[in-house]
Structures are given as structure tokens and as C-alpha cells.
Design brief:
1 helix, four-stranded antiparallel sheet, 4 strands, about 70 residues, mainly beta
Length: about 70
């Protein structure tokens, strides 16, 4: 099992912050992971020029100058 779930996307003008969760289970071990994440994408000249990923919404929000 491997699943991305979007919770919220924020338009920040020349960038976007996507908040979501990833859920997965190891096929052999059966170990489950349920982790929130944030992805900050910067657009320049109509192309994604930079992507930062964070393992918590709070980290992502703080990185772009927003409060959680």
C-alpha cells in the first residue's frame, strides 16, 4: 500500500505549498507509516525551479513565513 492524500494547497504567488499525508505499509515487514508532509514548489519562467520537502506541516508553513 502506498497512498498520498492532499489536505490543502496554498497559492503563494510565485510558489505553492502543498500539505498532505503519505500512508504506506512495507510489503515484507508489514510496518505501517502515516506521515504528514509539506512540499514547497517555486515557479520561475513558467517552470518549477525549486522544490523543498518537509516532514511536518509546521516546518513547511514556517519555511514560507506562515504560522501553523
Amino acid at each position: 500500500m502506498f497512498e498520498f492524500q492532499e489536505s490543502e494547497a496554498r497559492d503563494l504567488g510565485d510558489s505553492t505549498l502543498w500539505l498532505g499525508r503519505v500512508r504506506m505499509r512495507g510489503s515484507t515487514s508489514g510496518v505501517q507509516l502515516d506521515q504528514e508532509f509539506a512540499i514547497h514548489s517555486v515557479v520561475s519562467d513558467s517552470k518549477i525551479s525549486l522544490i523543498h520537502t518537509y516532514l511536518s506541516w509546521q516546518e513547511g508553513l514556517e519555511a514560507v513565513g506562515l504560522e501553523g
